Amino acid sequence: MSGAVGLADPSGTSGESRGPGPAPRRAPTLEEVAELAGVSRATVSRVVNGSSRVSPEALASVTAAIAQLGYVPNRAARSLVTRRTDTLVLIVHERPDTVFSDPFFASVLRGVNRALSPTDLQLVLLQAQGEAQRDRALRYVGNGHVDGVLLISLHGDDIMPNAIAAAGVPLVMAGRLLTGRMVDYVDADNVGGARDAVGHLLATGRRRIATVAGPPDMSVGVDRLRGYTEAVRAAGGDAAAGWVVVGDFTEASGQAATERLLAEHPDLDAVFAASDLMALGALRALRAAGRRVPDDVAVVGFDDAALAAYADPPLTTVRQQVELMGQEMVQLLLARIADPDGEPRELILPTELVIRASA
Amino acid sequence: MSGAVGLADPSGTSGESRGPGPAPRRAPTLEEVAELAGVSRATVSRVVNGSSRVSPEALASVTAAIAQLGYVPNRAARSLVTRRTDTLVLIVHERPDTVFSDPFFASVLRGVNRALSPTDLQLVLLQAQGEAQRDRALRYVGNGHVDGVLLISLHGDDIMPNAIAAAGVPLVMAGRLLTGRMVDYVDADNVGGARDAVGHLLATGRRRIATVAGPPDMSVGVDRLRGYTEAVRAAGGDAAAGWVVVGDFTEASGQAATERLLAEHPDLDAVFAASDLMALGALRALRAAGRRVPDDVAVVGFDDAALAAYADPPLTTVRQQVELMGQEMVQLLLARIADPDGEPRELILPTELVIRASA
DNA sequence: ATGAAAGCGCTAACAA
DNA sequence: TTGTTAGCGCTTTCAT
Fold first, then answer.
1. Mean pLDDT throughout B261-286?
2. How far apart are CA A150 and CA A2, in angstroms?
3. Which of A97, A298, A355, B345 could be bridged to A294 by S-S, CB 3.0 to 4.6 A?
């Protein structure tokens, strides 16, 4: 029996004092499993952690004891000694003025969870808004509370990626970093997608194609604009200043940008918008100006969140695999955790042009 | 000096071996802070935990040492002894066939994070889909890994709420539970909101008002239907079977339901849809049938995720305060954790009718 | 007000 | 293959 006496009923909380309802028992420990199985703690630990150096009999009795007791390892205790936390953190770092639509984020999250569900890892969510929260997140990450970081950064001049990487914590980003050190990331094929979009417009006879571009300090903005430019130039077209107006991914900015494009080029016959919300804005602006879509002007957007499907007419969009992006971010992160010093990796997911009534 | 010798450079990992880049130092411990401050671990612990029984001098030197070392308490170690985890978990339990739109969830999440950010609590996210994942979540929660649970359950016959409550883990739900024990929850005023919607339709001269209701095993479905029924009956109208068709919150179901309503009552002049996606579906069905909105038929939806704002014409909707819902869920949960045996609490958030072109 | 000491539940050498 | 042992970093009596 050894000194296990005190374990039988710690501090006298045996349920009676709680009144009705099931008594919230203390969770069983390794020690209790070991006793029931008639082996030592170490052996139980080996079983739990899947060590091969365990006899079949020991394995059987331990497994039975675990099942009987409903034993689940205490993460805190384990983490204390292994210095692993079995925890990943997803940080969404936004400016106080949020620009991105939530559905995008929700889809990434869904993918992350899908990838995580067969593992024993848990996901901590940190929505960092503004400097104070950013620093808190950084402190949290920097102090060994997580095994790795998934980062969705919503602005280009973010110090987080470098700070996290510098702290030696494995990191994977959604989207390419424009400056600073090379960091693992997953991204959509924004250049190719934009090229396809413009290619489609060209193929359907459009020649005066304008674009509502994204912010130039974010890779999404830069890449989608590049795809547009390349495609237009390849067709001998003009991708000069007047055909490009920058927005900030919001519907309002898409609308305003399109108004300017119309003022500059009343004869435009197509608009490629670098986000779905901006495409929606473009649609509004065109209608307000009395233009008909798609007969008069065609609109193609980049599908950040499937929102564009609800436009009327539904917008032709470059479909990204947002959920897959979340999944792959996790895979990359796990690989990075397993091999901290490997080469930086990137993964570019293909996009697909979904043609609808609008173009 | 005691036995602190071994701490100076544990296992010789002093950075040189890592090659270039900043050496991933071990995070400073209480012990180190204590030594630097010239006090004992216990005193540092008191300072960190805001105990009053500390002399001003001690407090000052400890505070300085903490700042100098950038000390952050190790959660695992703390949790091991306190049996608190300072962790809440948000469980989204969906059927394999997801019904709810993501934006709703994203908004709740945003509110949860907002409420959490001034605290030291962290949020773990569990997306439980199907039985296997549900049981895993239950095991996780039941074994003391979290201090409390926020639960968004997407179907009516869910065993999770009762299982969690039975395990004695503090729980707050989004939405009212139709059966089983009384559980703390936050909900929108679905009855009142639906009543307002129908009231508006009546006020604008509509008399033949149909509804696309939600699933009858969920409080959202039941309550919105009840609000509709009450309002229609109060006006002396007919809320009988033919005017009510049940959908499952998806756009497709809204469309199908509306088609049936039109078949049954070609003379209907308004549709109240119990979700924004179903309202969108209703819009499509009406158009397909050659009806004009809102001249011919008015449409009002329940706004679960602001998606309806993108319809054309923009839909008149009952606006819920989804983000606030998340915030309040956290407040309720914290209150419950502080007072596990208090009376069950509920919080009904007011809704607001946002009138747009469609009705 | 402060310190000494005992452990929380677990893993990881090391012995056997 | 198994058991023994020594902590991981922290909070918390219990002395002082």
1. 95
2. 47
3. A298
Residue whose structure tokens are 């920058």: A246
For B218, phi and psi rounded to 5 degrees?
A: -125, 145
Report whether B28 contacts B71 (CB < 8 A).
Answer: yes
The average pLDDT across A104-132 equals 91
Q: B168–A72: do the CB atoms touch at under 8 Å? A: no
**In chain B, which residues have their Cβ closer than 8 Å to the Cβ of A140?**
72, 122
**Residue B211, helix vs strand vs coil:** strand
- Summarize pLDDT for B144-186 with one digit per residue, the tens: 999 999 999 988 889 999 999 999 999 999 999 998 789 999 9
Which residue of A93, A312, A323, A358 to mutate against B (max B Cβ within 10 Å)? A312
Global pTM reads: 0.90
Q: What is the DSSP letter of A316?
A: E
Give the nucleotide at minimum CA-to-C1' distance from B57. C1
Take residue A125 and report the two structure tokens written for it: 């969510």
| Chain C, protein-covered positions (CB within 7 A) | 1-13
Residue contact B117–A133, C-beta within 8 A: yes
Residue with tokens 């469609």: B358
Does A123 contact B122 at a Cβ distance shorter than 8 Å? no
Q: Is the dihedral of CA A320, A322, A326, A327 positive or negative?
A: negative
Is the pLDDT at B24 greater than 80, yes or no?
no
Backbone angles phi, psi at A49, to 5 degrees: -95, 10
* Helix, strand and coil percent figures for chain B, each rounded to 5: 45, 15, 40
Nucleotides of D under 7 A from a protein CB: 1-5, 7-13
Contacts of A305 (CB under 8 A, 6+ apart): A101, A102, A103, A104, A107, A276, A322
A40-79 pLDDT, tens digit per residue, is 999 999 999 998 788 999 999 999 999 999 999 999 999 9
The CA distance from A269 to A300, in Å, is: 12
Mean pLDDT of A107-113: 92
> At B219, is the pLDDT very low, low, confident or very high (cuts 50, 70, 90)?
very high
Mean pLDDT of B115-139: 91
- Crossing angle, helix B190-203 and helix B219-234, to 10 degrees? 40
The whole-angstrom separation of Cα B277 and Cα B284 is 11
Q: Tell me, in Å, how far CA of B200 is from C1' of C2?
A: 69
b/e per residue, B154-175, with b = 16+ CB within 10 A?
bebebebbebbbebebbbbbbb
Sorted by where each starts, the structural domains of chain A and their CATH numbers stand as: 30-73 (1.10.260.40), 87-187+324-348 (3.40.50.2300), 190-321 (3.40.50.2300)
B336: its two tokens: 């419950």
Chain B contact set for A166 (CB, 8 A): 21-22
Q: How does residue A335 score in pLDDT terms, banded at 50, 70 and 90?
A: very high
